[in-house]
Amino acid sequence: MALIVGIIGLPNVGKSTLFNALTGGEAAASNYPFCTVEPNLGMVAVPDPRLARLQEVLGLQSCTQTAIDFVDIAGLVRGASQGEGLGNRFLSHARQADALVHVLRCFADPLVSHVEGRLDPLTDRQVVETELMLADLETISGALARLDKVVRTEPQSPQRMEFEVLKRVEANLERGRSGWKAELDAAELEAIKGHTLLTAKPVLYLANVGEQGEGADQVERLLREVGAAEVLAMPVKLEAELAQLAPQERRAFQAELGMEQAGVEQLIRACYRLLDLITFYTLANEKLQAWQLPQGAMAAKAAGRIHSDMERGFIRAEVATAEEVITAQGLVRLRGEGRLRTEGREYTIQDGDVVHFLFRA
Ligand SMILES: Nc1nc2c(ncn2[C@@H]2O[C@H](COP(=O)(O)OP(=O)(O)OP(=O)(O)O)[C@@H](O)[C@H]2O)c(=O)[nH]1
Ligand SMILES: [Mg+2]
């Protein structure tokens, strides 16, 4: 059950090019608005230096990384919520995503046409977000009409909270406020989760800059508007070209360009954080595997990620940190010295834990 990150934005801003940079793939990318119609789906392994070090000290031939699915969605234009462009098709694909990467064009290439005829990532962002808000308003108005009847006939209905929260979200969206999530607590968010509202999804803005970093002034404007944590600047076309090279060649080229870490790697890791995921590791029968888990999940649930039997028959977990395993060159010494912690089913798994589950089959 890999989580899905949807790539959204206006047409012709570099979404498919970004998808290719991530997957090393060859999705159609061209100077032609609405080049993408059917979404491209690709599974991308999450780079994990800690896993590589574990593999090395354990002397294993292979290991299994975690992955995220990326979906390259059709471009969206003004009026999409009313069916303009590929309208509702775009929106239904975006709705299936767990988080969104919103690509904003910051490169000024006169050869690549802009659907609105000018370079302005701030306005582009507004155009797209307005459509997301309008689409949500429509979803909400349909749901409220139905819930209104329910709470009127049964004022103490369990759906009362859902009704009240949706009304609050609606009031926010009507005032053009997409940041309504901050006002709700966990229970309130849970109550409306089923509506998969687009403005509820975590968003990362990807500023698509030119090959030489052109567009830095636009990135500055963007940073001022949305805050540094949510913006990543990346020369998408260059990254897609790098993705076509063999690993060794790519590293040499990156060193030449003074790039410490590939932009795509930064993006994948940023998405991992955006999805609020942590990684834990298991080592069984000489098989080292990384697993992803929502932040705050407990040991029994983590066991269930591997097999439902392990969750059902959970007895206890033996835990060490990846750093401890690396320093001790494996689990054997840690176990021998009694340094593996014993944890129960309610232990909160920490990022980087190496876990051995004991369970009744
Ligand atoms: N100069 C330059 N061109 C770029 C860059 N990124 C993308 N392009 C070009 O812009 C055009 C559109 O790119 P796509 O990746 O197809 O855009 P898209 O957002 O998927 O477009 P739709 O599928 O039509 O919505 C292509 O000709 C790309 O080569 C960039 O960083 N610099
Ligand atoms: Mg495309």
Explain the overall architecture.
- By secondary structure, this protein is an alpha/beta fold.
- The protein has 2 domains: about 5-35 and about 75-270, P-loop containing nucleotide triphosphate hydrolases (Rossmann fold); about 275-360, Ubiquitin-like (UB roll) (Roll), CATH 3.10.20.30.
- It has 14 helices and 12 strands.
- A hairpin with a 2-residue loop joins strand 8 (about 275-285) and strand 9 (about 285-295).
- The longest helix has about 35 residues, at about 120-155.
- It is flat and about 65 Å long.
- The mean pLDDT is about 90.
- Bound molecules: guanosine-5'-triphosphate and magnesium ion.
- The site of guanosine-5'-triphosphate has 25 residues, from helix 1 and helix 8.
Name the features:
binds guanosine-5'-triphosphate, 361 residues, alpha/beta, single chain, 2 domains, binds magnesium ion, six-stranded mixed sheet
Radius of gyration: 23 Å
Largest sheet strand order: 2-4-1-5-6-7
Question: How would the global form be characterised?
Answer: flat
CATH evolutionary superfamily of the largest domain: P-loop containing nucleotide triphosphate hydrolases
Task: Summarize the SSE layout with pairings.
Blueprint: E1 4-8, H1 15-23, E2 40-45, H2 49-58, E3 63-64, E4 67-72, H3 87-95, E5 99-105, H4 121-153, H5 160-174, H6 186-191, E6 203-208, H7 216-226, E7 231-234, H8 236-243, H9 247-257, H10 263-274, E8 277-284, E9 287-294, H11 299-306, H12 308-312, E10 314-321, H13 322-327, H14 331-336, E11 341-343, E12 353-359
Magnesium ion binds next to helix 1.
